[in-house]
Amino acid sequence: MATLTIRNLEDDVRDKLRVRAAQHGRSMEDEVRVILRGVVSQGSSREVWQRSRELFSGDDGIVLSLPNRADDRPIPNFS
């Protein structure tokens, strides 16, 4: 396992981390690990785009028929 040292961390960020860790019942160190794991495992926006195309671009989705459009509605009078 690696060790990471973070220098020049603003006091307000440290304080918010302390509160967040307490709310989750974790140490600050464990809270930072959880945050870092979550950010790193999300993937890039390109990976998300590619995955969404794989899931939703096939022919097995729902096909909706569009209603016929016509100019049969009256023009609104705004006066």
How many DSSP H or I helices? Answer: 3
The count of β-strands is 0
Helix residue percentage: 40-55%
Large-scale geometry: elongated
User: What class would the helix/strand composition place it in?
Assistant: mainly alpha
Mean pLDDT: 84
How far apart lie the N and C ends?
A: 73 Å
Q: Percent of residues in beta strands? A: under 5%
Describe this structure in words.
- The protein is mainly alpha-helical and 79 residues long.
- Helices cover 51% and strands 0% of the residues.
- The longest helix is centred in the first third of the chain and has 14 residues.
Give a concise summary.
With 79 residues, the chain is mostly helical.
Keywords:
single chain, 79 residues, mainly alpha, 3 helices, 0% strand
Write the layout of secondary structure elements.
Blueprint: H1 11-24, H2 28-41, H3 45-56
Helix pairs in contact: 1-2
